[in-house]
Write a structure and sequence with these properties.
The chain is mostly helical. It is built from nine helices and no strands. The longest helix is centred in the middle third of the chain and has 40 residues.
């Protein structure tokens, strides 16, 4: 391959990458400008919060329970070495509210609700429903994308809170009921060591950021998908990959900013 051909391919790839970022930025601005519909027709937002949250609730509950089980076991065996088994509740609560709750919930949301959004919008594109709405002077961004976007943003913090609560309950079952950690110490250490704003509040901020990112990526991939079965399949795969990587990258940035790393 000649240097000129390599340079040409690099330029084409760079132009395509910049065009993709530009299209995403334009779509994001369009969604934000048309967000007033969620106040004018709150039923659309309610239906999407129920749809997205209900689709992800079962997997969030099961995952939160087993993550709590594992944290209870591993945390007890680690703290026992230093004679601090009573701090198990504090360890579990901080791990879930700061990191594991928002991150794992976002990853599960990307794999469950995110793919559902991408497939739904992509099939609407493939079935020419988007084109039909445009022909009837109905703005598809305002009617289709905006309620789903804000529905995902609102559903994510609620799912994160449920995940963390179930995880703490799972750790309590393992640590107190099975291993024998003192129940009073479990709860008192947690109450005295967990700060509502610095720990729970920052975790909720993370969940909102993850909800914004994952939901928008899912809608963008579906809206820009090629109107073919293969195009929708590729868009669904990109949603999971890009959403997961974005969550992990943003988690590092937000943790460094929130806790002054």
């Amino acid at each position: 391959m000649s240097p000129a051909h390599m340079l040409s391919r690099l330029g084409a790839a760079t132009r395509e990458w910049l065009a993709g970022w530009g299209a995403g930025a334009r779509l994001a601005l369009s969604v934000l400008r048309r967000s007033a519909i969620v106040w004018q027709r709150p039923a659309l937002l309610r239906d999407q919060v129920h749809f997205l949250g209900n689709h992800s609730l079962a997997i969030v509950l099961v995952a939160g329970l087993f993550v709590g089980f594992v944290l209870g076991l591993q945390g007890y065996y680690t703290l026992q070495r230093y004679g601090s088994a009573e701090a198990l509740g504090l360890l579990v609560a901080l791990s879930l509210t700061r990191e594991l709750g928002p991150v794992i919930t976002a990853l599960l949301f990307a794999g469950r609700a995110g793919t559902s959004l991408t497939a739904e919008i992509g099939l609407m594109r493939a079935g020419e429903q988007i084109a039909a709405m445009e022909m009837m002077a109905v703005d598809p961004v305002r009617r289709v994308l905006v309620p789903r976007f804000w529905g995902g943003v609102l559903a994510m913090p609620m799912l994160t809170a449920i995940f963390s609560a179930v995880g703490i309950g799972g750790a309590y079952l393992v640590g107190v009921s099975l291993i024998g950690v003192d129940a009073g110490a479990f709860w008192s250490q947690m109450q005295s060591g967990v700060d509502v704003w610095a720990d729970v509040g920052n975790g909720m901020i993370k969940s909102v950021v993850f909800g914004l990112t994952v939901t928008f990526l899912a809608l963008l991939q579906g809206y820009a998908a090629k109107p073919t079965p293969e195009g929708v399949a590729r868009a669904t795969t990109r949603t999971v990959v890009m959403g997961s990587l974005a969550v992990l990258g943003l988690d590092f940035i937000l943790t460094a900013w929130m806790f002054n790393l």
